[in-house]
Design brief:
single chain, mainly beta, 6-stranded mixed beta sheet, globular, binds CU-O-CU linkage, binds copper (II) ion
């Protein structure tokens, strides 16, 4: 009998290594063409496309797989992602995987890879070390390439995430359009040199109109938000639901916190919310609060009608790892953000030099480190570090309670922040302002993370 059972077990099909990928509401997912369970392979191409945001006048976009935003790319933590990418644009491009702590060679910046020329194919392949909500975009002439539509979402799913009734990804963007649907000039005029390119049309998942859906009463949903705008910090409000921030920049927080009032979403940042409709709500609405001449206006971007079978309305226990304890700093960098006028135009600088004239900062890998970033200009700067996570320690010398492992921190005008990282990931990494016009006009730098010197052989 025992022998028979063993035989039977051998003949049965092996347990799959990974369950099927969960459905995610939002940008349509790219198709996985891999037959190997350990690999998710998708094919992506960038090319000219078209969409309609202004009534009756199509806009010429640049898009991944003809979608704005581009397709969702997702995998389970542990799976390898292979993205076979073809550039069908008329100019070179790259793809940067915003904040994935992957091999430097796959980071998609011109410092570590030759730009992908028109007609060329390049395969990005990496195994994300962290779960969470991410996004991808070009890292060349990004002020135009991202604005025209080259941007997409990426999720690395936690295998141990609690079940939710819906998982949604909301891409928050704005575009600057003429009345006939064209993009306004990309020449970076004076106002845009100072504050970046603010759009006159807000987009949610590539739609300029209110996006509608249904939500079940007392459903427990996970909403992922990313701000992909060139220059606009987004301020969001939620009506008809209670929400907690469960993850910031991807990683789950050990202590989620309630959303009260306006939720600030800096450019590049991701926020994951656990959203539960209030008991008496007929509708759940997501609004963007924008400044007007006379104050602010709340613009609804998403409206879900509450209907259907009720969910359990119970907050979930999210499987967050404890945050690493901040160790005393053993190396320190200071980055001063400022601007000068050069031939009547603004040049944005880090430590007194624009990117073209800058030398990489050199640091040692895996040493507890602090970075002081001082904004010595009026405009705010969403500062972004590639390839590493950091924790925010202080603002203007005062300790702050802004928990989480982050890759982006918004620094208001004339203020400074102190952040802590251990530079665990070796390589040549960019550190820059994510206002894409500021970056284009010089506010970028490189940090070279060198492995510690080998002890001499005995
Ligand atoms: Cu999201 Cu250096 O970029
Ligand atoms: Cu900036």
């Amino acid at each position: 009998m025992l022998a028979l059972l063993a035989l039977f077990a051998c003949n049965s099909t092996p347990e799959p290594l990974y369950p099927a990928l969960p459905a995610v509401w939002g940008p349509t997912a790219a198709q996985n063409v891999s037959l190997d369970e350990n690999i998710v392979e998708v094919h992506l191409s960038a090319g000219m496309s078209s969409t309609t945001w202004v009534d009756g006048s199509p806009t010429d976009t640049w898009a991944y797989n003809d979608q704005v935003p581009g397709p969702l790319i997702h995998a389970w933590l542990g799976q390898t992602l292979r993205v076979v990418f073809t550039n069908n644009l008329n100019e070179p491009t790259t793809i940067h995987w915003h904040s994935l702590r992957i091999d430097n060679a796959m980071d998609g910046v011109p410092a570590v890879q030759a730009p992908i020329q028109p007609g060329e194919t390049f395969t990005y392949e990496f195994t994300p070390p962290d779960s969470g909500s991410y996004w991808y975009h070009p890292h060349m002439r990004s002020n135009e390439q991202v604005e025209r539509g080259l941007q997409g979402t990426l999720i690395v799913h936690e295998l141990d995430a609690p079940a939710v009734d819906n998982d949604r990804y909301f891409v928050l963007d704005d575009v600057s359009l003429t009345s006939t649907g064209g993009f306004t000039s990309f020449s970076i005029p004076g106002m845009e040199q100072m504050h970046g390119r603010y759009g006159n049309t807000l987009l949610l998942n590539g739609e300029a109109e209110l996006v509608t859906d249904t939500i079940r009463p007392r459903a427990v949903e996970r909403w992922r938000l990313v701000n992909t705008a060139n220059a606009r910090t987004m301020y969001m409000t939620l009506q008809g639901a209670d929400a907690r921030v469960i993850a910031v920049d991807g990683t789950l927080l050990p202590t989620p916190f309630a959303v009260t009032g306006e939720l600030q979403v800096p450019i590049g940042q991701r926020l994951d919310l656990e959203v539960i409709p209030q008991a008496d709500a007929a509708q759940v609405t997501l609004q963007n609060v924008v400044p007007t001449n006379s104050g602010t206006a709340s613009i609804p971007l998403f409206e879900a009608t509450v209907q259907g079978e009720p969910g359990d309305g119970l907050q979930r226990a999210w499987p967050a790892a404890p945050l690493p304890v901040v160790q005393p700093s053993r190396q320190h960098l200071q980055l001063d953000l400022g601007a000068v006028q050069v031939a009547g135009a603004i040049e944005w600088q880090i430590n007194g030099v624009a990117f073209a004239d800058s030398e990489p900062f050199v640091v040692t890998q895996s040493l507890p480190s602090t970075l002081k970033i001082r904004n010595q200009s009026g405009p705010e700067h969403p500062f972004h570090l590639h390839g590493q996570f950091f924790q925010i320690l202080e603002r203007d010398g005062e300790p702050v309670d802004e928990p989480g492992l982050r890759d982006t921190v918004l620094i208001p005008g004339m203020t400074d922040v102190l952040i802590s990282t251990d530079f665990s990931n070796p390589g040549m990494w960019m550190a820059h302002c994510h206002i894409l016009e500021h970056a284009e006009l010089g506010m970028m730098s490189m940090i070279e993370v060198m492995p510690p010197e080998m002890p001499p052989a005995r």
